[in-house]
Amino acid sequence: QLLPNDHIATSGLDAKVKVWDLKNLGEYNTLDVEEDVWWMDYSSSSKRLFGIMCNGWVSAKGVMVWNWPDLSVHEKYMLPDNSSRVGIHPDGNIIAYSDSDDFSIQLYDLNKGQNIQKLNDHADVITHIKFSPDGSKMITASFDETSKIYNMFDLEKKPINIDFGFSWGGRIEFSDDSMIFALRSTVGADSTTAKIFNAKNGNEIAALKHESPVRAVVFSKNNDNAYTCSRSGELKAWDLSKSGELIMSAKQSLPISAVHLVPGNENLLITIDRETDSRIWDVELGKVIDGPFR
Hints:
With 294 residues, the protein is mainly β. It is built from no helices and 28 strands. It has strands at residues 2-3, 7-11, 16-21, 26-32, 37-43, 48-56, 59-67, 73-78, 83-88, 94-99, 105-109, 114-119, 126-131, 137-142, 146-151, 160-163, 171-174, 180-184, 193-198, 204-209, 214-219, 225-230, 234-239, 245-251, 256-262, 265-273, 278-282, 287-293. The strands form 7 sheets. The protein has a 4-stranded antiparallel sheet with strand order 1-2-3-4, with no helix packed on it. A 4-stranded antiparallel sheet has the order 5-6-7-8, with no helix packed on it. A hairpin with a 3-residue loop joins strand 1 (2-3) and strand 2 (7-11).
């Protein structure tokens, strides 16, 4: 998890969160937790770091909240039994968590110390909860093979429904401006296709097809392009202004786990593969221009 002033937080299967100083290339602090932290988030408005404690992929146990930059504990919130997934609102005040028994979502207000809303719209376990960067939308993924778009300003309104073949590894990825989002899944009927949607009305923009499960989707700053990678080592660039026309396709032998834009140059991509090797790719050339780095 990226943090201000060139810091980064990492977690492992050791019940610890470590914060690193990238300027000085050293450890900044170590935070002990009761359970392994599987996911983290940071709220710039509240200046809080969140660690979601889990003992399984759909078994969330609690949320640790630290103040930045002194990393004092703001709150430790232990979730009810049978909680599956957690989402953190960008304002740092609202936690959304799902129940694996009745498939509901509870919204918990950290400032008030109480649940403020319960949502019952899914028919199976929820595998991901994601808030848009501007906080206006909350989107879910579920084993019931649907995604729901909630309007955070009107939670009494029925959410927009999207059919998508989720299973294990169902994920939601937003653009920086919250206007569009991607759905993907490691397993399931739609695992080899990432689909892009309009966040306002849920209309499909593009379907990005691959040979194998899609591992990551990122967007260009103006949302004209999307970049994807897959388990079979595919790296692809797509023109979203032309309904997802393929503009670059490359492949390496090892699975690619993540892709990111190189800051300040949208023609360059950085990838990391299963063996933790990173490479720099030129989109126009469609090939590696530097690396691998480990």
